[in-house]
Structure formats: structure tokens, C-alpha cells
Design a protein that fits this description.
Blueprint lengths: L2 H13 L5 E6 L4 E6 L5 E5 H10 L3 H15 L11 E8 L14 E3 L4 E8 L4 E3 L2 H6 L4 H13 L6 E5 L2 E6 L13 H10 L3 E5 L6 E6 L2 H17 L8 E5 L2 E5 L11 E2 L2
Antiparallel strand pairs: 1-2, 2-3, 4-6, 5-6, 6-7, 8-9, 8-14, 9-11, 10-11, 10-12, 12-13
Helix pairs in contact: 1-3
């Protein structure tokens, strides 16, 4: 399946769900734009990344269509109330746009040189990033928003799958709730894992829906971490950074690793 076929399939399946949208396609950027007819709000889908995942699993088309449908639904002009939603921090790349399409600044905080903290109102199946006008609508100031988001973040469940490769352990947090990368803000989690490691602790958030924590005991471990980060970063619909971070003394320090070795034998321990 090529990009043009994928574009047509997405539009066809979205038409089965709703008819209140319009689309446009940027051939040069290979980007599909989907907008609501009533207010012009919409989203962009990078088809070049999506087509690779569809080739591996055609059911991924259904995930993309579901994501578009839910996002368009949340873009209705409606009053947002904290009674029916929750506020969470979300991590984005430091290059992610700082304002929405209307020019309103998003509420953000510094995190690392590679990443920035945004805030979102959660609607169970989707969420909306909080800009300054929305912050006023919610009746919060920035400090109250931070506190509320931090408390909600700490309540997020944490489970992981473990994979051991040549004496190095890799832990994958992947709840697919939109907040996997957010869990890097859970310092209690990071400290507990750090205290139990006997190697260097590496942390990676290549895209929104995965957090990788590694107990690296030898040079091969750094190489494997680099390969994983590049792979996950390339596959993610919301990429963040391909760089890994070393975690020590409660601080994240970016580390550039040039992976060279390949085909490491893997043994999964879940």
C-alpha cells in the first residue's frame, strides 16, 4: 500500500463514521489535513510514518481513523468543565509548537533541552492541550494547574514488560493511554528503579506512547538502547526525541549514543 492508497482508505473509512469534515493533502510533506466543517478546527496526519506501520499491520488504519474521529469530536465548540475531565501533564519535543492555530500560547514548563511539559484536559478517549484562554475558562492559575496535573500524574498506573539482552535489562512502559511518556515525571518511580539497578540507569521517551527504562551494565547495552530509541522514534505518531537520558542524582542528562552493533540475541523476561 502506498501513501495515496492509504489516504483514500482513511477518508473512505472516516466517511463511514461522519460527514462533517473536509480534507486536503500536501503532496510535498505527505501530510493529510482533516478539518471540521463548522469551525475549521482539525489535525494533521503524517502519512509517511503511518504507511510503514500499515504495511506491518493493516489494522493500524482503524486506529488512525478512530484517533481522527475522536479528535474531531472533541473539537466541537463546547464548554469544558473539570467535573467531566481531568488535567494531566504531557511531554512534547522542545521543537513542538508553542501556540495553537489561533495564536494563543499553550501553558508550558521547562523539562530538558530536548523536551517540554504541556498540560491537557483529558476526555477519556482524547485530550486537548491547555492554552492560556482555556486556563482562564477552567478557573485555574498556572500554579494550581501544575499541582492538579502532578497529583493526577502520580495516580497513573505503572506496569512494564522486561526484556533482558546480553546482561542488560530494558523495561517498557506502554499503557497506550496517551500518558506513557508523561510517567517520566514520576520521580518516585524513577528513584525506586534507580535504587534497584546495579548498572547505569538510562531513560528514553522516543514517542508519546512508550517510556523505556534501562539498567545498562556494559557497552552493548548502550548500543541496544540507541537502536531501540531510533526505531521507536521513527515509528511513533507523536515522536518526542531519539536521545536517551542518563538518570542520576535525581536529574536527567541527555546522552548521545552512536549504535553500531546489530542482531543482538534477545531473551524476554516478562
Amino acid at each position: 500500500m502506498n501513501i495515496f492508497q492509504l489516504k483514500n482508505r482513511i477518508i473512505e473509512k472516516l466517511n463511514e463514521k461522519r460527514n462533517d469534515f473536509q480534507t486536503s493533502f500536501d503532496r510535498e510533506e505527505e501530510m493529510l489535513r482533516v478539518e471540521r466543517n463548522d469551525n475549521g478546527k482539525g489535525l494533521d496526519i503524517a502519512l509517511s510514518k503511518a504507511v510503514d506501520k500499515v504495511k506491518k499491520d493493516e489494522n493500524f488504519i482503524e486506529e488512525v481513523v478512530y484517533y481522527i474521529d475522536e479528535t474531531l469530536e472533541r473539537m466541537k465548540e463546547e464548554e469544558i468543565s473539570l467535573d467531566a475531565s481531568a488535567v494531566y501533564p504531557v511531554i512534547r519535543s522542545s521543537s513542538f509548537h508553542r501556540k495553537n492555530k489561533k495564536g494563543d500560547a499553550f501553558v508550558t514548563d521547562d523539562h530538558t533541552n530536548e523536551t517540554r511539559i504541556y498540560y491537557a484536559v483529558d476526555f477519556k478517549n482524547s485530550y486537548r492541550l491547555i492554552d492560556e484562554p482555556l486556563l482562564k475558562t477552567l478557573g485555574l492559575d498556572k500554579e494550581a494547574l501544575r499541582k492538579l496535573a502532578d497529583e493526577n500524574m502520580k495516580r497513573l498506573p505503572v506496569s512494564y514488560k522486561k526484556e533482558s539482552i546480553q546482561e542488560n535489562d530494558f523495561y517498557f512502559i506502554n499503557h497506550n493511554d496517551g500518558y506513557d511518556a508523561t510517567r517520566i515525571l514520576n520521580t518516585q518511580l524513577l528513584d525506586e528503579m534507580h535504587d534497584g539497578f546495579d548498572g547505569e540507569m538510562m531513560v528514553g521517551l522516543p514517542h508519546q506512547d512508550v517510556l523505556i527504562i534501562a539498567n545498562v551494565r556494559n557497552s552493548v547495552g548502550y548500543d541496544i538502547m540507541a537502536q531501540m530509541m531510533m526505531q521507536y522514534f521513527a515509528e511513533g505518531l507523536t515522536p518526542i526525541t531519539s536521545l536517551s537520558f542518563s538518570y542520576r542524582e535525581k536529574k536527567l542528562e541527555p546522552v548521545f549514543i552512536l549504535g553500531k552493533q546489530k542482531n543482538h540475541k534477545r531473551g524476554r523476561d516478562e
